Each structure stands twice: as structure tokens, then as C-alpha cells.
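Q: I have two molecules that I believe assemble together. Could you output C-alpha cells for the complex as a whole instead of separate predictions?
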Amino acid sequence: MGIKVIKGGMLTTVQDFGRIGYRKDGIIVSGAMDRFALEIGNLLLGNASGEAALECTMIGPKLLFTTDHLIAITGGNLSPMIDGRPVKMWSPLAIEKGAVLSFGAPVKGCRSYLSIFGGFDLPKVLGSNSTYLKAGFGGYKGRALKNEDELSFNVTYKHKGDVFNWSADLKLYAGFGDDNLIRVMKGPEWHLFNEESKAAMFESRFVITKEADRMGYRLEGFPLATTEPMEMLSSAVSFGTVQVTPNGKPILLMADHQTTGGYPRALQVILTDLSKLAQMTSGQEIRFQPVTLEEARAALQQRVKRLKQFKQTLTFKNSSYEQWTI
Amino acid sequence: MKERGPLIGNGNSSAPSIFDPDCIYLQSIKPLIMRPALSTLCYPLGDQAIVIQLGDEISESILRYITSICNFLEEYSFEGFTEYVPAFTTVTIFYDPLVTDYETVVPLMEEMLEAIHEDDGAVEPTTIDIPVLYGGVQGPDLSIVAAHSGISEEEVISLHTSSEYLVYMIGFAPGFPYLGGLDERIATPRKESPRLQISAGSVGIGGGQTGIYPIETPGGWQIIGQTPLNLFNVHSTQPALLKAGNRLRFFAITEAEFDDLKNREDGY
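A: Yes, here they are, computed for all two components at once.
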């Protein structure tokens, strides 16, 4: 018993924290684009923080619940509804057997996470439930959800009718900054760019083009150039690496990026700001703000501290977690 | 006897650094036991990885050092270590920034470089033989390579099967090997517009490189044949057949042998 997919939505995939340890074999990490939203969703339900959830993109899916259960929706606001009535995000949500969860217009952000109490009953592939779309493995049959798919849950939820009149404090979630600033460190090849390009990277704006998906966002803006034409030997890249192609356009690598790349790595987005980036979409502007390794660490520590406080609040609110299980 | 090389790129050294001085977070690490001309540097890739760079050219000697580092990391990881990615001249080591940090990892890397030796990464003496059905449906571009090289298709096969290749790195796709050793006479430019679909196992030539596509993918290389071997098996604990440092050879098989081997591979 679990969910039956009525409509798959634009791109709905099973994702967790990613497939770790196989990049040396050319196997990408995959995983949730917005890992912070995924983590909060799981914490709300008392799940392990990296439990796999459904990542819904722009146009969310329509799902029939074939059992009573407990869910949480976090990340981008894609107007979630149960049986046509808007429901709260960032909160545990009891849903009844026969109810339909659907999504409406994207209000803010573009990726929503549907976490399930106890998680989905799916086999792990190479240690992870993340969907590797290109290689066709992991997640649900190695692909995005489509009509008629059926997913079952790991546990049953026996407290039908529970009402949760609280939700997570949104200040916790860094994804929805009101600015378009993305903090970056200089990349390994930053020094090879000419002076105008170096200045433009931090002073001008870059627009996310229509070519923006889980692999990466192509950006449009001041044409960036290295001082001398260069042939680079391929080397590792990472989630958040900004590579510059020979036509001067940057590509921001996202969760499904290849393990190695042969273009100069001009910038590297800091870990803390990847969630914010994951919620940005085509047409939006980005400004890169240079920070040091020190500042990157401080930003991460601040977030970890907030998350810790949140966990404490949760323990207080949900001292009854154990009761939820069978 | 191990010879200690000079410290390179520390600001006091006259040795040229390949990096700009205003990237202050770049650090030199002691290029112990390395060839004197081999500059050894480390630098961060954002706030969760450290890159160790050995020189800036493709060479077997560098590959051996890279392989030594990988072998070392397989055996002795450190607190916060998550994974490593070897490439032509770099090993990128990812860590959990909530557990450790760059400044903590650098001295560990120094220790590691003191402990390793080029010979530790000696390429395995065994050579992996890759059976290939050349030409036909499996190798639609064999004639293009022959025409471009001004030789017969048989001669292309003969040249392709007579070299020994070295796997320099794995990247681009699961288990995709970047190979060194292609005979220059059959180097052929990539296709002007890439094919949208190349079958798993396809053997191609792209410029001066040759390689095998482990999974079905779009690609621009000239496809001269196909191997029935699975280069990538997701159900194995070692999902990629090849790894950096491996040597391999291609040998030609008939269609019947191809079918037979393919059935056996898929039977797993």
C-alpha cells in the first residue's frame, strides 16, 4: 500500500542524499537538488535525514494514496493540495486513504519534496535510492514517475486523524533568500581569466537560460574569456562548479553533473547556497558574491546551528514519534 | 633511496608556480620523492574538496603517482573522507565539511605523499583483453576511419588491435575509460554532429583518442566496432570493469563469437 500515480508531473524522481563513493568509476552522485529541503522534510516526520523522497519539478504530480499515511512537503511552493484544498507545507500532514495529493501553480521556487513517513519501499542501488536518469538505474525503475506507477511505503501509519497545528520556521530554510546572491569561492582556474572577466564575474548579472535541468544551468551574461586560449586536462568537478565553455558562457553544474569536466572551473558555489540555487529557474538572474573558505565555513556552521535548534524543537513537539510506528 | 625534491610554489621558491599568487588559499605541498620537475600543489574545490595536482601533462609516471594516491586512500582514509576522483594530473578528495576542514586535510595529504612512492602505483602486469566485433552494424564508421587514414578497413583493425592501451582515467559516463596509446595513423576527427544514440559497448575513435561507451549515450566519436563485454554492471560491488592504471588490448572476433560472448555476459 502506498501511492498510485495519476499524473507523473513534469519531472518527479526519487532522490536522497546521493550515491557516494562511485565518482571514481564515472558514476555521478545524483541526489536531491535541494538537500536542505529534503532534510527538513524528513526531520519533520522523524525519518533519517537522508531518507529518499519525491523531488517534484515545476509541475508537480497527482498522486492517489491507497493507505492512510503521514507526509511532509518542503522546498519550493508548487501549491500543494489534498483533494483540491490547499495544504500547509513544512509540517507533518496526515493524509487519508483515497485522498489525492496534487500540485497547482509554482508560487515560489521550482522543486518541492514530498517526504513519506518511514520512506518508500525501494531497493537501493550502489547504496542509494537516487534516480540516475541517464544510466537508468536507482530510484523508481531508474526513471521519472509516470502515470500508473505504484510505489509502496516501508511502514504503516496508524494514527489517522492526527492534526499538526504547527510548522517549521521558514527562517530555518535558506532556500528562499529574497536576493539573487549566490556565494562562491574562486575556482581552480579562476586566475586564468582576463581582468575584465574576473571583474564581470562578481559585478555583473547572469541569467539562467532555458537550458537548465538537473545536470546544470547554462548562464548568459558578460562573455568570459581566459587570458590565453587554453586546453585543459579533464579533472573532477562538483555540484556547484561554474565551468566556462569556449564560447564564453558559464555552465553551473547541478546534482546530475558528470564526474569530470574539461572546461576551466572559474567558480565554485559554496555548499550552503546550493539549495538556494536549486530553487532558481530559467529567466532568473544570479549575482555571484566572492567569499573565502573561512566565510564558507561560517555560513555552513550557522546553518548547522539553526538545524540543531530545529531538531531540539522537534523533539519537544513530537515526543510521541514512537507512537506513530506500527 | 628516496630523494626529497624542492618545495615548490611557497612564495620563496624561484620555481614557477602554475598558479596565480592572488589565489592565496593555494598551498604547496612537499613534492617528496617526485621527479624534480614535477610540481605538487593542493588547492580547494569549494568547501568540500581538496585537489592534489601533480604536474600538468599526461604521463605514465604521473599516472603511477595518481594510482599510488588512490591505493593509499583505499587503505587509509581519514575522518570525514567521503570519496576520491582520479584524473590525468589530479586526485580530487571529497570530505564532509561538517566533520573536517581543508586546513586539517592538507597536513594529512602531506603525510600521505611522504608515505607513497611512484612504484606503489605500478600498473598491474595483467592486461585486460577486450574482444571487439569490428565493422558492420556494430561499427558503422569503420569505413570513414579507413578513408580518412588512407588505408583499408583491415589495416585499421590491425592497427587498432596491435597497440597496448593505458587507462588514464574514468569519466564522462559510468566506467568510460580515457585511453592513451592510439596509433596516430588511425586518428580521425569526431563526427560533425554527434549521434543521439550509441549502443553500450561501442568502440570509437575521437581525434587522437579511442574508447568504449559503457552505456547507451549520445556521442560524437567514430564507431568502429562493439565489444560484447559489459564495461559497467550496476549489480556488481565493483560496477566499472576498468579503472585508471589498467592496461588493455583489443582483439577482433567474429559475429558468432560476439553473439556467444554477449549471451554469456547477459546471462550474469
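A: One point stands out. The longest strand of chain A covers residues 69-77.
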